[in-house]
Structure formats: structure tokens, C-alpha cells
Amino acid sequence: MLKLATRTATALALLFAAPAVSAQTADYRARLPQDEVIYFLLPDRFENGDTANDRGGLTGGPLVTGFDPTAKGFYHGGDLKGLTRRLDYIQSLGATALWVGPIFKNKPVQGGPGRQSAGYHGYWITDFTQVDPHLGTNDDFAALVAAAHARGMKVYMDIIINHTADVIQYRECQAKRECPYRSRADYPYQRRLGITGKPINPGFAGDDVRTPENFARLTDPAYAYTPFVPAAEKAVKLPAWLNDVTLYHNRGDTTYRNESSTMGDFVGLDDLMTENPKVVAGMIDIFGGWIDRFGIDGFRIDTARHVNPEFWTEFVPAMQARAKAKDIPNFHIFGEVSDHEVRPAVLAQHTIVDKLPAVLDFSFRQAVVETVAGTRGTDAFEALFDGDALYAKGFDTAVQLPTFTGNHDDGRFSTFVRKAFPQASDAEVMARVMLSNAMLLTLRGVPTIYSGDEQGFVSDGNDQDAREDMFASKVAVYNDNRLLGTNTTNATAHFGQDNPLFRQTAALAKLRLATPALTRGRQQLRAREETPGLLAISRFDPDSGAEVLLAFNTATTPLTRQVEVGIGATGATTLSGSGCGAVAAPGSLTITLPPLGYAVCALKATQ
């Protein structure tokens, strides 16, 4: 029988013995991306600061306004004013940067009869220049950024370039739910609706000739389907150039593979022709404008892998130049490259071919899921960190990758634990989640905490099921969830600081920010196993070279092992967790870990 509850209490006591955080850099702009702890949230699901904007200024029922706080797929009322009022809560957790889900004006409701849902998540944009009225105003966003900056916190915007809201329709698909992708080979740009169709777009040399003169010859969009825009939506998109149907691929639904990955409609959303110089210039103008007006600190780029690489090689330098002109030296840009295997090469290629400065580290997330919410050996982390060499600048890029264990798309880590170990007690589930937190907040990368994880939220699944409200929810399928570390449900607001997961996260974030080895330090693998058990990694202070040993036990049995450390180590101080023992011989430290335990050990060395 695992004594997990006792171990958890002991670990928490030790966590709060961590040293105090050193004073924050006077100029928060000077912090590097890896110096941050990111907190990610969807504004609609965080806090309602103004009930007057719940319906976005629209009149009617949920299918018009998008507002239905009882339905998981509709607006619930959260907004930017509410978020601004809760900055103290976020900062008390230890977060130094906010990743705010998309705030742009969205199409309120999409979907055919019986399949409607709302744009509460922010990914169905019609107006790229304004805040969605459900979330507030541009002035509200300016106030949020100013308030965050006054606290020394950064603000990262979630942006979308791959697509807009679903406005363009295809005459051939009006009676169907799906519109299969039609390739360039079978439906070339120079023929109407297929290779046997009449000639169109004379002189167009193909989409790989990316000059304004060439794309000016692409005037007829009816090469794969016959696109049209309903009369009521002909001018719905802003800036106005987005209403030009010829600036979209119009080839039907993506299969997420091969050619369709960058040219197909993502879940029916209008896929922009990002090969066209007019689109490139337009997007640079749009998002450069947000930097100019609000002085934000970075972009998370949605669906980055579904845009042609050449676009990013122009867009990223343009954004970095706009940021530099605003005296923002460490503007953090990271793309979403969704992948669900421990395959760093898949992610790394986008830092080389696309020249993205960073990507979300899905491989890190998968390694933690397979080992802590699964039974894979800790050698998964060897494969993960060996892959750091593949990134554009090797470890210097890897250390800037935002790491995470769960999110709004893939689901919460706690849910994976419950599904993998359905017979596990709540104490064991809690221990596994705490172990994942310890990995997230001590290993290389930029730890990214998903709103609600610190409050013990456990979702039913992914996507809409993992987007619970932080304020008191009215959604039945959220309110019947069994949370961790609390007897409350999602029917009550969760902004307290007494949940063990909140306290652990805050303490580990505090320790991380006070320990340069954990933010900027290089890593060295010390031990791993091909079955559940020990993972040991050393990190080194970039200035002094002082060693911090991280030890994790993914097994449900205790372990005592000798772990190699620097030859000059004379002893160890436990900074977090428990199990840092004595130096048994030069270069060998004794580690004793409880089941699912961890230890952060600061090594003492001879002078």
C-alpha cells in the first residue's frame, strides 16, 4: 500500500522551504524567453468582469449571440476585464508571462443544423483588428497589457494566420457536410473544376512563383470548387482585403497530410493562400500593428505547421523588427506543431526549414504522458533530450521551447492519469500529477501551466471537455467532474490558493525563478531506465557552473540508487521534494526516492 498522502504532505513542507525568489529584473523586457513561467488561459473561461458584454452586443438566443453559459461549446461570459482583475492570482502562482487565447473578433456561431457551436475559443476570426465584443474592447486589452507590465509580467498573444472563420462556401458541397480535398494535380489552377475543364487564369505560373505579378494573374478561383460568399457576409472580414475569395486556397477540407496539410480547409475554415505576397504583406501589417499599438511581448502561432514555410521566413523577421523598434528585445515567437509522439525531429524541422524561433514542445508533453501517466521507461526522456541537437541552434533553441503537460486541445494531464490507471486512488493520481509538475518546472524549456490545472481540474476528455470555467460554471458535464485536492466542484469559482497543486506549483515556480540552473542551465542525463523508475538529470548554473541534480521516480515502489554527479561534489541540499542523500564516494550521490517521488538537489562542491 503506497503511503502517498503522507509523502505528498512531506513534499509540500519541503517545497515551502525553498529559498526566496531573487528580486525581479527591474526591466522585465530584459528577461530571456527561458526566464519565464507561462500561464495559458482562454479569456471566455477565466473570469467574468463585465456581464454587459456577455452577448457581444448582439440580440437574440444562443444561436445568434453565441452566449449560453450552460453549454460547453458556447460563450460563458469571461472577458478581459475579468482577467485583468485576476492578475494578482496568476502572479501569486508564480507565473511571469500570460499566454492569452485569441481575442480577435470571431464569427459568433458556426456549424450546420444540430452541429452549431460558438467562437468562444477565438479561432474563427472575422476581424483581425478588433477585440471580440464578447471579451471587451481594444481599450480593455490595452488596460490588461499595461496592468501586466506594471507587475513585470509579459503578455503573449495567440494568433492565427492559417485560416479565418468559415465564410466561403462551395456550390458543389452545399448539401454535404464535408468537402473532400482536391489536389493541384487533379484540379490545376489553369483549368476550371478539373483537368478537362475550360482554360482559366492564363499566364499564372503556379503558386511557387511568389511574385505580385504572377498572383495578379490568378483571377478565377473556380479551379477545384466554385467558391462563393453568402450576401450577408460579403464584407464581414476586416481588413477588407480578406473578403477577396481569390486569396484563399478553396480546395476543400484538409486531410492533415501531404499537400493538403498547408492548402486544405482546417475543419472547414477558410484557408488563406499564404503563398500570395498580398497575404504575406497583409498579415505582417495586421500583427505588426498589434505590436505597435499594444507593446505585447510575443506570439503563440496557431496551426503553424499548416502554413507554407516560406511565409514564416518573411513573417518572423518582420515581427522581430517591429518588436525591436518598440524596444522589445526578447520578443518570444513559438508555433504550434501538434504531434503526439516523442519525435523531436518533427518539431525541430520547423525551426530549420520554417525558421520559427521556437515551437510548443509536444514531444516533452508526450514523454511525460507515456512515463508518468503510462508505463513507458524513463528512457523516453533520453530520446527526447537527445533530440535537442536537432533544433536550429541546438540546446539554445530547445531551452526556449514552451513545455506543457496538458492544454485546451489535447486535454488535461490529470485526465490521462485517470484513464491510464482507472483503479488508482486519488492519492496516487495526485502524486502522479505532482511528479509531472516537478518535471515541467525543473527541466529545460519554458514551463507552461494551463488554467485550472493548479486547481485540480480533471476533464472528461479533450477539446471542449477540457475548457472548464475558472469562475462558477453552469455546465453540467463540467460540474460532475471529480477534482483533485478539493471537495468542491466546477460549480464554484476556483481562485483560492489552498489546493495542494496550487501550492506545489507556486513553490516550484518560486524555486525555478531563483535558480539560474533551472532557467538557463544546460542539462546532462545522469540515469534512465527502460522500465518505470529513475530519471536523473543534472543542470548547471550558466555562470558559476554549480550543479543541481534532478531525480524522479516514475515507479510505484521506492528506490535507492547511486547517481553520478560532478567529481567535486561534497554533499547535497534538498531544495524540493525529498531524497537527496550523501556523497558516497567522489562523483557518486545517494538518492532515495519514495514511490512517484522526486528531489531537487543543490550540490555542494569543494572550493
UniProtKB/TrEMBL annotation:
Domain Glycosyl hydrolase family 13 catalytic, first and last residues per copy: 40-512
Coiled coil: none
GO biological process, alphabetically ordered: carbohydrate metabolic process
Entry annotated with the keyword Cell membrane: no
Keyword annotations: Signal
Cited InterPro entries: GH (IPR017853), GH13_cat_dom (IPR006047)
Signal peptide: 1-23
Keyword Signal in record: yes
PANTHER family associated with the record: ALPHA-AMYLASE FAMILY MEMBER, PERIPLASMIC ALPHA-AMYLASE
Name this polypeptide is given: Alpha-amylase
Organism: Sphingomonas taxi
